[in-house]
User: Fold Taurine-pyruvate aminotransferase from Litoreibacter ascidiaceicola.
Amino acid sequence: MDGNLQSNDLSGVVEADRAHVWHHLSQHAGYMAEENRTDPKIIVEGKGLRVWDQNGREHIDAVSGGVWTVNVGYGRESIANAVRDQLVKMNFFGGTMGSIPAAQFSERLISKMPGMSRVYYANSGSEANEKGFKMVRQIAHKRYGGKKHKILYRDRDYHGTTIAALSAGGQDERGAQYGPFTPGFVRVPHCLEYRAMDQGLGDLSGEAYGIACANAIEEIILREGPDTVGALCLEPVTAGGGVITPPEGYWPRVQEICKKYDILLHIDEVVCGMGRTGTWFGYQHYGVQPDIVTMAKGVASGYAAISCCVTTEAVFDMFKDDTSDHLNYFRDISTFGGCTAGPAAAMENMRILEDENLLENTTAMGSYMLEQLEELKGKHTCIGDVRGKGLFLGAELVADRETRAPLPEKLVAQVTGHCMAKDAVIIGMTNRSVPGFNNTLCFSPALIATKDDIDAIITSVDGALTTVMG
Assistant:
């Protein structure tokens, strides 16, 4: 860390944070207690895969900014310079007008997404998904008399924090205390093969299980009425619900079902997009063609706020209308979708991904990390399953391998806490998401990760499991 930033210089910052900042996903009682008071952690500086806190302690960040975002790592001067230069020239104009970086990035982005055509800019993943939902609803009114308006979503998937996005959220603890929710959203089953027995599908595995999970979606479509269902919204790999990779046969059958009933396929790439799984987008592993793709986090690696709702030309054409109806266009706006910092950062972020061959590194290092997790599984009986794609991996912890009873969330938190306290390694976990199943350790280091970085992460987890589980 910069020698000019000593911990005593930041005491005022810590106190200002304690007094005025409302942290995300945090209980502040410990910060305010009169006795045994804890300090909020302030991240002061980052470089590569490392960050430093207010006390000068160096940490290995195995979750890319805590929320799977900083794909190309910290301290990228070229991205900061691209943003600075653009903001000085032209910082903002509402999205009714265009900008040079928005036009240029949309062209680059579409070149990575065969079959897609149009980019609608916003500034968060939740907002991007809202745009997709609104498109589906407006199409229902324009073409189907408002009837084909229902949106299907999957158990354990997550699509954002707004009320409508939570209405499409398959993580009940995320939505707890925020209802009532928006009507017209319908849940379909998850596709976690390790938990097939919990679905009454314990004898099925592999492609048979994948097809059964997809067929369960069709059953719900038939129950609801195909003429009422407008879209199916899924993550390519379920993220916060437990890093769930789809079983063989699942995605082709899902695509077939959507086409059969004229249902738009909306794929939420907010986490998986921009190389996280080793391809530009997660869905590209599975040979499907979506109608709507949403993305955020890794699009600019956190150097600027940006999200995109990308559609096919066929979806875009549904909003082309030369009638006299004054409500004939997509009547939506995102104020900061007009900020030029996002696409300027995204352009440079994409250049880095390409020039440094980070997709290839993600595939190689992801395979290596998966192998290391499998070795840990052989050593620690509390690891029931390891899974993932690229540098997006999970290890599900269990109290008993035979019954697959989930390890209590409190013990899982002790594992992550031990990694932080002893080794200054920041790893993630499912928490306050899926009742009874917040038991998966989550790993998503920046796509620049090396074998040494991964070895350090694995060593820390090994030690934590040994300490916590004995």
User: Anything to note?
Assistant: The two ends are 35 Å apart (CA to CA). The longest strand covers residues 392-400.
